[in-house]
Structures are given as C-alpha cells and as structure tokens.
C-alpha cells in the first residue's frame, strides 16, 4: 500500500478525496492537513462533512496537522485540494520531497509541470524529469485541469485524433459545488443563473489546447484550432453540463463522429486502473439526455455522458452535442487520483 496525505482535507474537494480514497486497493490515507485552526483536532471534530455518503469511520480519529511538509509524516503522495493562492506557495514546498497530485490551478500552466488527463495526454508525464532537474526537487507536481475543461477535452480527444477540428464553441452550465460549499450564496443562485465565473472561460480556452497539443523535446505546442467558451453558474448541486459546437475543416460523417467517441479508450483503460471508467465517454440516444441529476454519477462519476449528438444544419461541416461530467469527481478529486494511479503504475 502507498501511504498518502490530503492537503486541504476539510473542504469539499478534500472530502471527495477522502470519499474516493477510502478502501482504495493501492492507496491508504495516513495524513490529513488543514489550516492552523484545525490542526491538533481529530478529523471528525475539525471538519463539517458536506457529502451525502457520510464521513468514513477510518478517518474520524486521524489527527489533522498543519499544511506543512514537516507535519505529514511517512507518505509518498499528497493530494492537493488547496485554494489556488495557498497552493502556489505550499505545493512547491511539498514537491521538494513528495509527489504532489494537485487539483489546484496555481501550477497548471508552468512549462515543466505536467497538466494531464490520463486518457488524453499521459506522455506529458515525461516533463517530470525536466521539472525535477530544473527545480532540484526529489518529488514533483502533476496537475489535472479545470473541471469543465476535463469533460470537454475527453470528448474532443477522439474527434481530434481522427479528424481536423477548425473551431469549438462551448457554453457551460456549471454546478454550484464547483465554487465550494460557501462559494455561491443561496439568494444569488436560487431561481437564477449567474452568467459569469471568474477565470473559467480563459482556463477552458487555454487548457484545452494545451492538453491536445504536442510534446516535443520538453516543450508543449498547443493545438491550433480555435476555442471559444462562455461559462455560467446554475442552480444544480453537482454535475457540469456543456453545450458543444464543433466546426470541422472538412466534411465528416455523423456516424464516424459517434463511433470515434463511443470506441474511445485510453491508457487507464488498457492498464485497468482502479479509478478508470470502463468507457470514458458514454453516449445516450434519448432526446432528453444527458441530465446532471441522472448522469453525473455515471461509472462512479468518472464517465462523461454525451447526448444529442447531431449535425448543425446552420453551418457546413459542423456538429453539436451536450455533455455532463461530475465536476468534483471526474473534474477534481477523481482526476487527481487517476493521475496518481497512472504515476504509481508506470513511473
């Protein structure tokens, strides 16, 4: 078993890490960190549990420690659920010694830090050796993308591999859990939609192209098609919905697009990693699917569900579809865990 720690364990994403790592066949939680006001308390006393699953008994008596490398004890991997501002300072300190699988955005676009979706670009892990040499670290940082980016990019990958994409437009309807438990006041979101999420559109537009780029001699050349995103917060607890419009360079058959997504498998599926969904992309044929309440937990929340795949009759060589992905599982904690499983398997 690999001993692991969770940085920022009392927050919503930290709790998802705990939920998903409890009874994991390869990883055992031995350290939980939080702010100084929680340090020294048992986890059940330090955390207000937000998830429906209930706090696992195995973590209740773990003593929470300060988020400092000297405090986490005998661990090999730490999962970071830290806020961006904190992560920028703290994660490099941990990476001097430990493997850091981060959900935070602070280090995502650093030249020598792998930004990885294991089904999409596992080869970016080759940057680890460059990172360790550049920074003099014994450990390293691997990041996963923004929650909305992950779902979108997984669905684009099989299309991009087989066809030439000219332009992508995406409009998101994002769940409130993406902002954290206290992130969106109820009076702001009930009976409402908020048409702006700070920084979200820029992340989708840059991270997607980075993930689908080419790694050559330690440098990533982003994909060259256009991405335009409009991001919105809606009154849904979990599960991001995205309406995607793709303009192709050349004529493509709808059945070929459907087959490319339905048949898509990546390295995690070939390696049978514990958190890997059997099908990264699940295609529904019903007119009224996917829906977040019905489809966010597909394959344990790690599958991305696609529906309403159809030609866009208004534009030549264009297609459109709707997707749903679980933002705190596939889009956050589950993504970091799958990265760690891949690292544990191949490195």
Give the arrangement of secondary structure elements:
Blueprint: E1 2-7, H1 12-21, E2 27-34, H2 43-46, H3 57-60, E3 65-66, E4 77-80, H4 84-95, E5 99-102, H5 127-135, E6 140-143, H6 147-162, E7 165-174, H7 186-189, E8 193-194, H8 200-211, E9 214-216, E10 219-221, E11 226-234, E12 240-248, H9 254-262, H10 267-271, E13 281-283, H11 292-295, E14 304-311, E15 318-325, H12 329-346
Parallel strand pairs: 1-2, 1-4, 2-3, 4-5, 5-6, 7-11, 13-14
Antiparallel strand pairs: 7-12, 8-11, 9-10, 12-15, 14-15
Helix pairs in contact: 1-12, 6-8, 6-12
Describe the structure using short key phrases.
single chain, 347 residues, alpha/beta, Rossmann fold, Dihydrodipicolinate Reductase, domain 2, 2 domains, seven-stranded mixed sheet, 24% strand, globular
In a nutshell, what does this entry contain?
With 347 residues, this protein is α/β, with parallel strands linked by helices.
What does this structure look like?
- With 347 residues, this protein is an alpha/beta fold.
- It has two domains: 2-146 and 333-346, 3-Layer(aba) Sandwich (Rossmann fold); 147-326, Dihydrodipicolinate Reductase, domain 2 (2-Layer Sandwich).
- It contains twelve helices and 15 strands.
- It has helices at 12-21, 43-46, 57-60, 84-95, 127-135, 147-162, 186-189, 200-211, 254-262, 267-271, 292-295, 329-346; strands at residues 2-7, 27-34, 65-66, 77-80, 99-102, 140-143, 165-174, 193-194, 214-216, 219-221, 226-234, 240-248, 281-283, 304-311, 318-325.
- The strands form three sheets. It has a seven-stranded mixed beta sheet.
- The chain is globular, with a radius of gyration of 20 Å.
């Amino acid at each position: 078993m690999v001993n692991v720690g969770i940085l920022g364990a009392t927050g919503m994403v930290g709790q998802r890490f705990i939920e998903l790592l409890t009874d994991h066949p390869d990883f055992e939680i031995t350290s939980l960190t939080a702010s100084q006001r929680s340090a020294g308390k048992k986890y059940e006393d330090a955390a207000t549990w937000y998830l429906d699953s209930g706090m696992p008994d195995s973590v209740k008596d773990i003593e929470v420690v300060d988020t400092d490398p000297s405090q986490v004890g005998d661990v090999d991997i730490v999962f970071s659920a830290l806020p961006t501002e904190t992560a920028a300072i703290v994660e490099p300190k941990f990476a001097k010694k430990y493997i850091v699988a981060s959900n935070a955005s602070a280090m995502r676009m650093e030249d020598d830090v792998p930004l990885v979706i294991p089904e999409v670009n596992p080869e970016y892990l080759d940057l680890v050796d460059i990172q360790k040499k550049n920074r003099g670290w014994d450990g390293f940082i691997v990041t996963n993308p923004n929650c909305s980016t992950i779902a979108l990019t997984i669905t684009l990958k099989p299309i991009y591999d087989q066809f030439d994409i000219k332009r992508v437009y995406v409009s998101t309807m994002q769940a409130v859990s993406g902002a954290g438990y206290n992130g969106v006041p109820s009076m702001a979101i009930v009976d409402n939609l908020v048409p702006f999420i700070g920084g979200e559109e820029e992340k989708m537009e840059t991270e997607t192209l980075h993930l689908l780029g080419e790694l050559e001699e330690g440098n990533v050349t982003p994909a060259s098609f256009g991405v335009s995103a409009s991001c919105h917060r809606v009154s849904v607890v979990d599960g991001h919905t995205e309406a995607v419009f793709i303009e192709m360079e050349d004529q493509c058959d709808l059945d070929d697009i459907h087959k490319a997504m339905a048949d898509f498998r990546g390295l995690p599926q070939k390696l049978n990693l514990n958190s890997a969904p059997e099908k990264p992309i699940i295609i529904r044929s019903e007119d009224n699917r996917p829906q977040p309440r019905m489809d966010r937990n597909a394959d344990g929340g790690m599958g991305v569900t696609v529906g309403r795949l159809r030609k866009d009759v208004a534009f030549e060589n264009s297609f459109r579809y709707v997707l749903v992905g679980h933002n705190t599982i596939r889009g956050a904690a589950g993504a970091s865990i799958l990265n760690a499983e891949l690292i544990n398997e191949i490195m």
